[in-house]
What we know:
Order of helices and strands: EEEHEEHEHHHHEHEHEEHH
CATH class: Alpha Beta
Number of domains: 1
Oligomer: single chain
Radius of gyration: 17 Å
Structural class: alpha/beta
Bound molecules: adenosine-5'-triphosphate
CATH superfamily: P-loop containing nucleotide triphosphate hydrolases
Number of strands: 10
Strand order of the largest sheet: 6-7-8-3-9-10
Mean pLDDT: 95
CATH topology: Rossmann fold
Strand content: 25-35%
Low-confidence stretches: none
CATH architecture: 3-Layer(aba) Sandwich
Amino acid sequence: MTALLRAERLEAFYGASQILHGIDLSVARGEQVALLGRNGMGKTTLLRALMGLVPTCRGQRLLYGDDIAGIPPDAIARRGVALVPEGRGVFGALSVVENLTMAARPGRDGRATWTLPRIFELFPRLAERRGHGGHQLSGGEQQMLTIGRALMTNPDLLLIDEATEGLAPLVAQEIWRTLGIIRGEGVATLVVDKDFRSLSAIADRMVLLAKGVVVFDGAPAKLAAQPELLERHLGV
Ligand SMILES: Nc1ncnc2c1ncn2[C@@H]1O[C@H](COP(=O)(O)OP(=O)(O)OP(=O)(O)O)[C@@H](O)[C@H]1O
């Protein structure tokens, strides 16, 4: 079956610096894939390249088998991919409801699974804060809102950068719980985080990056059985 997303020999550059050196990666429909690696290894660059946000790339990026080279980010979004960027980016002057409704649109096939009530069911905390401005939210609430906004576009694939970075443990747990629900709805995810244990518990597959190269791609249990890889590339 055609992968939802596939990168083949993907290279990415910032100016003269080459950041990705021939990445092969695929995400199947509904699959939850974790992307791990130490700081500066290219995880964010890979998500951005897949979203069409890195102007200079080589190799192939295929979405449902179609080459998306040269396709701008908004068109990639309309084809079913949503990015939850590191550092969030909610609109501070707009309320929770406004942040969510401005993102609303049907999915690639006209599907509208994710509506305001569905997002509030997923994140009861956001329902309580529905009239609050984005700037009044805690870091955890902002992350929930950013994920909620991405879901309102009814994507087939969510790219989530630093899913729980800087969040209190209980809030992080809440994010992991919702990622399980999102998966249950058949939305594929490619999730970057440093929490190896939580990622191992939810991911179908783990991909480990080091210096812009994939050094492991396989089941969580297979990675857990390689302590030398974990030590060298994650420090766990
Ligand atoms: N806009 C940019 N211009 C030039 N170099 C950049 C730019 N953004 C990132 N880099 C460099 O690219 C490399 C990979 O960065 P990237 O952010 O993709 O790594 P990462 O694995 O996501 O790390 P982190 O966990 O720190 O976010 C780093 O050496 C970084 O300094």
